[in-house]
Amino acid sequence: MILTVTPNPALDLTWRVDRLTVGATHRADAGAARAGGKGLNVARVAHAQGASTLALTTAGGRTGIAFSAEIAASGVPHRVVPVAAATRQSVAIVDEELGDTTIINERGVNPTDPEWAALFGEVVDALPSARVLVISGSLPPGAPESFVPLLIGTARDAGVPTIVDTSGAALVRAADAGASVLKPNAAELVEATGIADPVDGARSLIARGAELVLLSLGADGMLAVTASDVLHARLDAPLAGNPTGAGDAGVAACAVLYADGVRDPETVLRRATAWSAAAVLMPLAGEISDDWRTLGGRLVVAPHTSTLREDSP
Amino acid sequence: MILTVTPNPALDLTWRVDRLTVGATHRADAGAARAGGKGLNVARVAHAQGASTLALTTAGGRTGIAFSAEIAASGVPHRVVPVAAATRQSVAIVDEELGDTTIINERGVNPTDPEWAALFGEVVDALPSARVLVISGSLPPGAPESFVPLLIGTARDAGVPTIVDTSGAALVRAADAGASVLKPNAAELVEATGIADPVDGARSLIARGAELVLLSLGADGMLAVTASDVLHARLDAPLAGNPTGAGDAGVAACAVLYADGVRDPETVLRRATAWSAAAVLMPLAGEISDDWRTLGGRLVVAPHTSTLREDSP
């Protein structure tokens, strides 16, 4: 079973406006609210592809009611730890005229210590059945620094590998704690490590203790960085679509392979890049196109040589 | 008692971002959620100034829970008709770097016929104690065309004058139904009447049956248009501040005077302009500065002569 933890979930709203103009007042048509957060997207994708999954997260307040109802309706197996503070909201404002999407994510409210302990307890309870642990998404401001390292260490003690997709200091702490896989994008890597070249940054995380860094590069595909190699996978031609959730689909691919005991970096890189691309073809995060095998056949995979620019997506 | 009806309330959120960029992803600090809608703002201002008020509106869904809790905490007397659909949300995105505020209002969901009937029933129950009825704000898409005229007619039968602050076809229907006062801004007036000159547009609403049109002009103050006169009031110098809710404060001033039996257009115009200006000095809609009497002393009031531009705010 793939166990995912989402420490800072969000109720995702989509609002459509004719044209978004800074400083103006707009009328919006509201789409359906959806339970969001990277770990939930990972679980949705893996579950839809037939994997056994369990998504752990928190919910609270009026937004938590809608969040819990939507995740229950989705059919994705889950456990929700009740918290006092309201689940944050995230709004995607879609400009119908230009097609731009502007995203505003509330930062989220830090759970109390007993609430963190309850979430940790759910992980401990579920670990004996888990083949891989995925920790995905941001942490709310003020979150205990020990939370991610503690999860990684506890999973290791249970013989369960961990895949971590987060940013900032938590990404570096995950490397120090010996995460099996880290999945930053280039900007997150530069910001977290302070190293201008993302490949050097990825190598620094390997040196700290991570086994594999999957470095997502948007339309340029993905790198797999290990202690010995750097492989680059990309599609033979760019795809048009919605990049939201592409990284989560890559994490889901990695989780499915790790749960099956497959850890060969090239196999993981190929599947993660194909599922990321297949997510771009879908309108919502947490879904991938059934065409992912065709996309996998279009991958160009080669050892990486050149230096990356800091502003690679 | 001042009775206000808000047919399309909203849960108002304020989000602060460093810099709002169309097409980008932002992290927002969320402020407190507040029960919003123009009729509620009118009731808040009048209540804070010591008037007897009752605010009638609807609430539903997860947002309705927060809406009802906030209006209850505010201390403003109110009755909330429960509806099945969720109360809409409205978000003000404040750009901390430039100070711009970008507003996104969900359109709102039309109540069912029995829910409209329940709201109408609350008005009928409250009218015997009312000295003036205020109908403020937009109507949700698909709202029955008869709702505003029916309220105006029912109030007239009960000997209660009506003040209507709405837009589009509902504004014209309110004039046809013989509203005592209409409070459009210049853009709303041009859009509703199709007449390019706002003063001519206001006169057309008087010809249809309204007694007084208070035409708000933003920093240029306000006009009072009756069958015989057009008076212009403005401050001697512009004010810096937050114009959100300035129109509602003007309506509150008018309502307080009408509830006291004062209907002289110049007196109403002076108080409405002073309270509008006093709202600009406050950070939140639904509040006015205690300095409104000083601002009233700074008013320049004169018969209106020149033609207004269509783009006056």
Topology:
The structure is a homodimer of 313-residue chains.
Chain A: E1 2-6, E2 10-17, E3 25-30, E4 34-36, H1 38-48, E5 53-59, H2 61-74, E6 78-82, E7 88-95, E8 101-106, H3 113-126, E9 132-136, H4 147-157, E10 162-165, H5 169-176, E11 181-182, H6 186-193, H7 198-208, E12 212-216, E13 222-225, E14 230-235, H8 246-259, H9 265-280, H10 292-297, E15 299-303
Parallel strand pairs in A: 1-5, 1-9, 2-7, 5-6, 9-10, 10-11, 11-12
Antiparallel strand pairs in A: 2-3, 2-4, 7-8, 12-13, 13-14, 14-15
Helix pairs in contact in A: 1-8, 3-4, 6-7, 8-9
Task: Tell me about this structure.
The structure is a homodimer of 313-residue chains. Mean pLDDT of chain A is 94; it is low at 309-313. The relative contact order of chain A is 0.13. Chain A has helices at residues 38-48, 61-74, 113-126, 147-157, 169-176, 186-193, 198-208, 246-259, 265-280, 292-297; strands spanning 2-6, 10-17, 25-30, 34-36, 53-59, 78-82, 88-95, 101-106, 132-136, 162-165, 181-182, 212-216, 222-225, 230-235, 299-303. Chain A has a single domain, classed as UDP-N-acetylmuramoyl-L-alanine:D-glutamate ligase, CATH 3.40.1190.20. Chain A contains ten helices and 15 strands. In chain A, the strands form two sheets. A ten-stranded mixed β-sheet of chain A has the order 6-5-1-9-10-11-12-13-14-15, with helices on both faces. In chain A, strands 2, 3, 4, 7 and 8 form a five-stranded mixed β-sheet that branches. The two termini of chain A are 31 Å apart. Chain A is of the alpha/beta class. The A-B interface holds A 13, 15, 17, 20-30, 61-63, 65-66, 88-89, 91, 93, 95, 100-107 and B 13, 15, 17, 20-30, 61-63, 65-66, 88-89, 91, 93, 95, 100-107.
